Amino acid sequence: MYNIDKKIFIREELNGITVYDIVKNIYKFYEGVDLKEYLSKNKNFEKNKFEKFLEENKNAISSNLKVKYPFRINWLISDVCNLDCIYCCANNKMNPAKLDRELLKETAKHILTLSPLTVGLTGGEPTLCPEIGSIIDILDGKCAIVIDTNGTTSNLEKYIDKIKNSNTTVRITIDSMDNDISNKVRPYDENQINKIKRNIELLKQNNVRVSVHTVVTKTNYDSIIEIGRYLRKYKIEKWQLYPVNYSEKCKDFFDEIKVSDEELKKLEKELNKELEKDMLIRVYRNQVDFRAKGVIFANSIGEFYTDTIFNGIDMIGEKPSLQKLIEHTNVENHIKDYLFN
Q1: pTM, to two decimals
Q2: Mean pLDDT of successive 10-residue segments in the chain (341 residues)?
Q3: Most exposed among 81, 131, 156, 240, judged by the fewest C-beta atoms under 10 Å?
Q4: HSE of 88 in the Cβ direction (CA atoms, 13 Å)?
Q5: Beta strand extents in 77-192 (DSSP E only)
Q6: 72-290 has which CATH code?
Q7: Please, are residues 156 and 203 in contact by the beta-carbon 8 Å criterion?
Q8: Would you list the domain boundaries of the chain?
């Protein structure tokens, strides 16, 4: 694995190279491209020279990747959360056992042996994990780091120096700028939105890359445009919107809160009409079949698994070998879920 300023990560594959641009949050595979060609002319990886090399090989961009390594591993480093989101899909994946700090560090080191381009630190609420600082130290420079947070805790300030110096991206979930609506889908307290705003201001002041994730439901559908207007004010350049997914927690009322592809298409059109000049907006559709066994997880006690979406998890085991990990992963879905997204 190579990296340029911890912003561009380059990995050699069986039949080419994959490049992950942490700024644009996009993975691209260049079929048949050999890094030896670049290194024969350049001693080091320099951003301008490497981007020119990629431009010269743009016709090699392909999805014909022979998967040997994962694009991303989503690691649930915390089994506690200060919110109680009605759609949470992590409840049946978290382990209630007492947190083992040394085991977390060992798991971080094992994850690196699997050569993921990105590790997503999630939970629960990852900023409540007492070892998040140590985990960042272990992963820093060896893969891209994304912290998926609800944005309400004061711990972001506690770890701000590690976050900004490791070039970590912080992805915050905002489902509405209206506190009452937000509390219907993400029960917390009356100051939820103000806490999120303070943390976004903190991150932007420290030049930390921030992206925003929104879960679209019937409850927040009509208020979503206000999120975009707020993001424009703070010059947040990437906004991903996902339809609510089926989970054990919301299975009894899923049909009441889910949105149709027609509604998502309409929403995307409205958002881009007003905001596309200010940010990259991606509204995903209801293609949960693409995710089945295509997303790789690890929990806080070092167990790895994939999510079948409708039939629970498919356990891989503790500290699996790279071969075992790939054998348990739906490679086609893994590629669809990450490549070019």
Answers
A1: 0.93
A2: 94 96 92 95 93 97 95 94 89 67 95 98 94 97 97 95 94 96 91 96 96 97 98 93 89 95 97 95 78 89 83 88 95 87 62
A3: 240
A4: 21
A5: 118-122, 144-149, 169-173
A6: 3.20.20.70
A7: yes
A8: 2-62, 72-290
